[in-house]
Model the fold of this input.
Amino acid sequence: GESVGLHLPTLSVQEGDNSIINCAYSNSASDYFIWYKQESGKGPQFIIDIRSNMDKRQGQRVTVLLNKTVKHLSLQIAATQPGDSAVYFCAENRGSGYSTLTFGKGTMLLVSP
Amino acid sequence: EAGVAQSPRYKIIEKRQSVAFWCNPISGHATLYWYQQILGQGPKLLIQFQNNGVVDDSQLPKDRFSAERLKGVDSTLKIQPAKLEDSAVYLCASSLYPDRSNGEQFFGPGTRLTVL
Done:
């Protein structure tokens, strides 16, 4: 069936490096995507979103890139900090008129000082 | 502003027992969601409410799971009887807007259920 998934289950980086987390989606009709960060023992926290009429969107230290041709989404974190260590999920917004999210499996980001 | 509140935070039960979870969304949020998150996986939507009406319960195992939001504010999710595979974190989320054009959802800390 159609799903949203991630290429790498775990990403280990050094503090100060840039991190890139990737996500593939299979539903070409999806038009809204969200990245969430989930720390241990907490619920997911919204990071950034992007609509399908955009290729790139920037936030504070984060950038999301959308490649609709290959149905690929990525989250770039600049100058990664230990506090960025968490599991990152991409989510696809689908549904007729309501905000129903379908999440991928997640990538764990480990940042070493 | 206060976030989404959930209780209890942890629950351990025997299989075939019943359990209930409670959620209080952010004030003013008409849309409320319950998700199930199995260890190592992303959250899976169980049910979505708009005020006190159900708009999506297609992935809710209705033979054992039930949810209600009688007054359009707080919500409860019940499992009766529980199975071993119900062990998971149950997340509640709420959003201000129900439509896809502004889909930010705010999540609570979740209830971790262990079924023995």
User: Anything to note?
Assistant: Chain A touches chain B at residues 4, 31-32, 34, 41-46, 49, 89, 91, 93-95, 97-106 (CB under 8 Å).
